[in-house]
């Protein structure tokens, strides 16, 4: 509906959130959200009147048996805020990092080419003069990201944690997929999740819902593993000695 409405030059999509109550002896209320494709002349102030109109109740018969209150309308496109200083700062930081990665990759590739053309002694001196930061951010080279993707690393005692990290990461992605639509796009359907008077076939009755909702435990697990591995690598670097290496290990 949103895609169809966005393609019409004379209409705009409006997401209407409301509280629907069944007029029974024991009132059951639930938050609802319905998308409408309205003429551009209609503003959010007109939405409560439109919801209670006879035409809309004929199109959506369920509204005729509900007492609708707390009607709020939002335009996912028209209500978007223009990019501010935070957006500009974020783009600038990402652009600087991208340029630095490309520069580091070019430097490491050029250094490797020069090393093959020069004598071994001169190549060794050139490698000694190479910047550690270029080596850390380069996509190619001995420690490059692309090079490491195709390289089979030697066994480490912490390899047993990789499977747990992958499981935790997948669980976090599933949990965010369930929770983020409400925060990002404003879509919310609690009547299909929590048990109420409007719907009995809700996700709350399915044990698999707990597997999704408890994804926050995987967030804690992932952070714990990351902190453990970071501390482990930092301690190893401190045992080797060297102030610069310790500082890089802490920062990176």
UniProtKB/TrEMBL annotation:
The keyword Membrane applies. The chain crosses the membrane at residues 85-109. Keywords: Membrane, Transmembrane, Transmembrane helix. It comes from the Eukaryota. InterPro entries: O2_lipid_transport_reg. The keyword Transmembrane applies. This is ABCB1 protein. The gene is ABCB1.
């Amino acid at each position: 509906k949103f895609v169809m409405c966005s393609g019409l030059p004379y209409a705009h999509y409006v997401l209407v959130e409301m509280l629907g109550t069944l007029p029974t002896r024991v009132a059951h209320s639930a938050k609802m959200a319905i998308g409408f494709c309205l003429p551009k002349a209609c503003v959010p102030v007109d939405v409560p009147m439109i919801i209670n109109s006879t035409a809309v109740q004929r199109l959506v018969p369920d509204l005729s048996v509900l007492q609708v209150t707390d009607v709020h309308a939002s335009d996912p496109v028209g209500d978007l805020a223009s990019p501010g200083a935070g957006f500009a700062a974020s783009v600038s930081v990402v652009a600087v990092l991208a340029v630095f990665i490309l520069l580091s990759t070019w430097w490491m590739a050029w250094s490797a080419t020069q090393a093959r053309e020069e004598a071994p002694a001169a190549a060794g001196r050139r490698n000694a003069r190479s910047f550690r930061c270029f080596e850390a951010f380069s996509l190619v080279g001995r420690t490059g990201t692309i090079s490491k993707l195709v390289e089979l690393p030697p066994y480490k005692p912490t390899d047993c944690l990789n499977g747990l990290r992958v499981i935790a990461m997948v669980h976090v992605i599933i949990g965010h997929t369930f929770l983020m639509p409400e925060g990002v796009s404003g879509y919310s359907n609690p009547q299909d999740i929590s048990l109420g008077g409007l719907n009995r076939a809700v996700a709350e009755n399915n044990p698999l819902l707990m597997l999704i909702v408890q994804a926050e435990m995987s967030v804690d697990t992932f952070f714990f593993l990351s902190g453990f591995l970071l501390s482990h690598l930092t301690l190893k670097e401190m045992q080797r000695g060297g102030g610069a290496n310790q500082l890089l290990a802490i920062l990176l």
